[in-house]
Design goal:
This protein has about 475 residues and is α/β, with parallel strands linked by helices. About 35% of the residues lie in helices and about 20% in strands. The strands form three sheets. The chain has an eight-stranded mixed beta sheet with strand order 10-9-8-2-1-11-18-17. The longest helix has 30 residues. The radius of gyration is 24 Å and the shape is globular.
Length: about 475
């Protein structure tokens, strides 16, 4: 456990700082009494990763004056390859200014393998929209706000973590080994830091997850090109986003054209045929056709996206949030809101358990609070979207049926209520029964008319995990 400077100065104070059984072997380590001295050494929490999950966690920790909070971010202007869509509720819930939103999408075209188009935004109200953001802008805003609350920010890359073998039963500190970047230098300075609690918000290739033995997960590759098109062509995308389905653009996901500030993000993703991602990217450009013709590619981005939760999201005094924990939904591929929400929820529960910085939470306590509450709120959402992806994204017949179903105003209403506000509202049992019949009919029709999917095989690549 941590000692105060006063404790080091006089052994007499130890009697007040520990319970009588503190020194008996195999008993729980006693926690420090709440300190009222300016000389006290605080527990130190390190958040690794400065994206939405890490920034939102850091903001909560930084407001607790009894905790030292350090945020590590390797690249302050990082532009993560990401569609950049956020739900309307996130803007208000996380107090983000509208300047963070590049475009307010109120029209969404869904295009089938045979080119059938459906506008799935017809039920949106005038004040409702899907926000389109550039991650480098949004992430910086959230990170800067956390720093304003008092967090220390280290511009560096955590390369390894020394985890004590008995970290689950003691308060022995973790040692972070990192390269701190220096302005004007291409080489970092090797440093280390001891911390008491770690929140891993460092994405799909999480070093924190590896250090804590969180287990592996399957992943998708998302590929996106930022394309600068003419002002005239950009007018079409002023409030418009497009989603393309078909085995030509992805065998298990969708391709997209999403508007940004002065360009469009054009991309796709896949789990089952990752080696062919550039082939699918070429196809989405071709499907968009004249709408982006003559555009200049200004940035190419690729990144792994988790397909499910990590087997272990809390180990000892280490917790995972965001992509590091596996919080990306199937079917829609949404991750930004769930990253921010998980970071905030984890930090709130850990801060409450630390009781003003007087103690460190146990693994069991964090699992019973953060993990249980998060899974209770969003577990059903992940399950439903996983089922929908398996039903509608696996072949062209199902994709044609999916697009036809989206003509239904009821489907659109339920879809956008769920997405924009993270809750399903207004469901009608009679409409649900009708929807079941329509789904069966659309699937039968789709399977009878759609062209077969192209065959592929990648037995080795399909087994890879991170």
């Amino acid at each position: 456990m941590k000692f105060t400077l006063a404790t080091i100065a006089t052994m007499a104070s130890t009697a007040a700082a520990f319970t009588p059984s503190s020194f008996v072997q195999n008993t729980p380590v006693a926690h420090r009494a709440a300190a009222d001295s300016a000389l006290s050494m605080k527990y130190k929490v390190a958040v690794i990763g400065g994206g939405p999950s890490g920034a939102c966690a850091t903001e909560i920790f930084a407001q607790e004056k009894g905790i030292d909070t350090v945020l590590f971010e390797r690249k302050m202007d990082n532009a993560k390859p990401c569609g950049g869509a956020i739900p309307l509720c996130m803007v208000g819930e996380f107090n983000m200014p509208e300047s963070v939103v590049d475009r307010k999408v109120r029209k969404m075209n869904l295009i089938s393998p045979t080119g059938v188009e459906v506008n799935i935004g017809e039920t949106l109200q005038p004040d409702e929209y899907i926000g389109m953001c550039r991650r480098e802008i949004m992430d910086k805003f959230l990170r800067d706000r956390a720093i304003e609350y008092g967090a220390e920010c280290v511009n560096g890359l955590v390369t390894s973590i020394d985890v004590p073998s008995d970290h689950k039963t003691t308060e022995k500190p973790y040692t972070l080994n990192y390269q701190e970047f220096i302005a004007g230098s291409s080489a970092g300075v090797a440093k280390s830091m001891e911390v008491d609690y770690i929140v891993g918000a460092d994405g799909a290739n999480s070093r924190v997850a590896k250090a804590m033995d969180a287990g592996q997960y399957n992943f998708a590759i998302a590929f996106q090109e930022r394309i600068k098109i003419s002002d005239e062509k950009m007018k079409f995308y002023e409030e418009m986003a497009e989603m393309y389905v078909g085995d030509d653009v992805s065998p298990d996901f969708y391709g997209w054209v999403f508007p940004k500030y002065d360009h469009v993000g054009v991309g796709t993703g896949t789990v089952v045929n990752r080696p062919a991602i550039k082939q699918y990217q070429k196809a989405i450009r071709e499907r968009a056709g004249d709408k982006i013709a003559g555009g200049k590619i200004i940035k190419v981005e690729a990144h792994p996206i988790p397909e499910h939760y990590r087997p272990r999201r809390v180990q000892g005094r280490i917790a995972l949030v965001g992509d590091a924990a596996g919080y990306v939904t199937k079917c829609s591929g949404e991750g930004i809101y769930f990253a921010a929400k998980s970071g905030r929820m984890a930090a709130q529960e850990i801060v409450a358990l630390m009781k003003g910085g007087a103690r460190l939470p146990t693994q069991s306590e964090v699992e019973k609070t953060y993990i249980k509450k998060y899974d209770g709120l969003y577990g059903p959402t992940y399950t439903v979207l996983d089922i929908l992806q398996k039903v509608f994204y696996t072949n062209n017949g199902a994709r044609e049926a999916f697009v036809e179903l989206c003509n239904s105003k009821y489907v659109q209403q339920v879809t956008f209520d769920s997405y924009l506000y993270k809750r399903v509202q207004g469901n009608n049992p009679l409409d649900d029964i009708k929807l079941l019949g329509d789904t069966i009919g659309c699937l039968v029709k789709g399977y009878s008319t759609a062209k077969p999917d192209a065959e592929f095989s990648n037995p080795k690549e399909s087994l890879k995990r991170i």
